[in-house]
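Morning, I've got a small favour to ask if you have a moment. I'm working through a protein record and want to make sense of it properly. The fold is given in discrete form, as structure tokens running alongside the sequence. Can you walk me through what the tokens say about the fold? Thanks so much in advance, here it is:
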Amino acid sequence: MIRQAILWDSLGGGRVRCRVCRWRCVVEPGQRGHCLTRENRGGELFTLIYATVSSLQAAPIEMKPLFHFFPGTSWLSLGSLGCNFRCPGCQNWEIAHAQPDDAPRGGAGILPAEQGIAGWKPAPQAVQDLDPAEAVDQAITHGCKGLSWTYNEPTLWLEYTLDVGRLARPRGLLAHYVTNGFATPDALDAIAPYLDAYRVDIKAFNPDAYRRLANITDFEGILETAERAKRTHGLHVECVTNIVPGYNDDDTQLGDLAGWIVRALGPDTPWHVTRFVPHLDLSDVPATPVATLERAREIGLSRGLQYVYLGNVPGHPAENTYCHVCGALLIQRQGHRVVANHLLNGLCPFCAAPIPGRWQ
């Protein structure tokens, strides 16, 4: 669905500059920006994916992953098409690399949460239009805590997520972005009043590694936006780093990244270090050894982080939440399921320490 975009400037001569992500594309008449979802039509910028839904699912919050944000709840998870990164190992390339005018119409509707827990993946074979009011109704009908903008980069969907957010808030629904963090401050400031959490990928911690993993080098901008989400807007922030052997698994990067989280976001910010799975153009790279993830966790804890989790290793003790004061087991997980939750009103039941996060 096509709608006029927000956050763009006219440069004269029919050219426009987009201000949604940090590419800040200058788009000539008749052309599209780097993400391929925004087009210059007659000197005005339009989004080509407003209300275009490729992926729709009631899914547990643990899939995002967000571990300190209403654990065990279900969220209406929506994705569209396109991305502003070109990650060679993209797990959702079918929708991230799809162009809006190539995707056929006729989506099959919402998938139940059980399919997500079993490993359901987005598929772009048939997209559907879902107007903002209907998205809100779907979240309520399926007993969801709120809406999760995920699967592809939600910043590209800014106009739609804004309109849904304006309707969702009065009906008691929460919302969060699962994002690569490449949004401009303008885009974050626009959507932040309608978000409660910001789950951001920090893919690496030097320009060369970011170039190899995402084809961008301005990773400092990602850090600035994440800090703005926490410090300026008060959003709940959790960080994810997918550890790719030979790319971002060295002790220097891991230590520097963990140190930045402590300084910029606070030691109580959860950091998820997740196992890389060979895929797409990185199919020849081996899966991350569990020992590497465990070393990354130890580095994070040694730098002062209170909560470092292992991801994509179901059953590992480090996917559980332990009290940062007394070490007691508080939340036990098995993959995307919460097996037990011993928190009492956000407090450790053993030592009464407040556990940072947002709880039921």
